[in-house]
């Protein structure tokens, strides 16, 4: 059994993955009680009931114990994030990955963050690289955008981050040809949006952080094949400059990232 704790200070939510062999509500409540006794800040325990699904990439949960209100403020790496895990996608385990990407952003860059959720990546980037020119954060879930706008304000980053409510395919058009870097933290089906990412970079090229699922024993080959197929169709020269395992998803499946340099004209 594994669980994550989202939230800090005096209030947090535990997200628990209970094995199928534990099939009674009484046993589930015992597990929840044990978590809450060990971690006093946990006020609610949610059991995963589905995979990420739907347009908003949210998961179905069952409240096993505690308060029905699951909105929390989560602190990591010097910034805070308000969110409700029942309304928006958020992974506490990806904090290190957010820092990895943020550390690669250069001075005066314009960064496009697709599928931005409650804003953890845009906030992480702006905090790590205060001399970034601008971060455009696009998200289709209105609840997530509401949290993101709060998180931008509370972290005093309104001068650096632009939040946009809308579908990536339509909302990014305004920034075609203006971006130096595109982050695509959607592991399922992100290849369908590579054409949009390339258009955001424009003729000068730039870097795309492309996320996907990788299966053992070769974690990166399928993602590299998807990237190659799509970028070649767009007649773009590119180089995979880094391959990174983000976190395990199941015993033989992992979330991975390919850092891709798309070559500009004359490169």
Structural notes for this entry:
The chain is an alpha/beta fold and 267 residues long. The protein folds into two domains: 69 residues, Met-10+ protein-like domains (GMP Synthetase, Chain A, domain 3); 174 residues, Rossmann fold. It contains seven helices and 13 strands. The strands form three sheets. A seven-stranded mixed sheet has the order 9-8-7-10-11-13-12, with helices on both faces. Strand 7, helix 3 and strand 8 form a beta-alpha-beta unit. Helix 2 packs across helix 3. The longest helix has 14 residues.
Indicate the CATH class of the largest domain. Alpha Beta
Number of strands: 13
pLDDT average, as an integer?
94
Q: How many H/I helical runs?
A: 7
The radius of gyration over CA amounts to 19 Å
CATH topology of the largest domain: Rossmann fold
Strand order in space, largest sheet: 9-8-7-10-11-13-12
In which range does the helix fraction lie?
25-40%
> How many domains comprise the coordinates?
2
Query: Overall 3D geometry?
Result: globular
Low-confidence stretches: none
The percentage of residues in β strands lies in 25-35%
Distance between the termini: 50 Å
CATH architecture of the largest domain: 3-Layer(aba) Sandwich
Order of helices and strands: EEHEEEEHEHEHEHEHEHEE
- Please state the structural category: alpha/beta
Q: Strand count, sense and closure of the main sheet?
A: 7 strands, mixed
Name the CATH superfamily assignment of the largest domain: Vaccinia Virus protein VP39
